[in-house]
Design goal:
By secondary structure, the chain is mostly helical. Helices cover 77% and strands 0% of the residues.
């Protein structure tokens, strides 16, 4: 995320921690070395964006599958 000035390594670590079930406050407080010392506010922004993008791509895939099914019936 360029607007957060985040290194790829830190972004990957944050995604991994979130996927493992870690909370934003936990990550901000106890995993500073893995996140580049991101604040809890920036971590929340990152998580919101991650959730949005995951939802977006899931919806995109479902639409593409639906379009593919409709084409096969024509």
């Amino acid at each position: 995320m360029k607007n957060l000035k985040l290194k790829k390594k830190h972004a990957e670590n944050i995604v991994k921690l979130l996927d493992e079930g870690s909370t934003v406050p936990f990550i901000a407080r106890y995993r500073k070395e893995m996140t580049g010392a991101m604040t809890d506010e920036n971590l929340r922004l990152f998580k919101e964006r991650l959730d949005y993008l995951r939802g977006f791509y899931a919806r995109k895939e479902s639409i593409l599958k639906l379009i593919g099914r409709k084409r096969s019936f024509n």
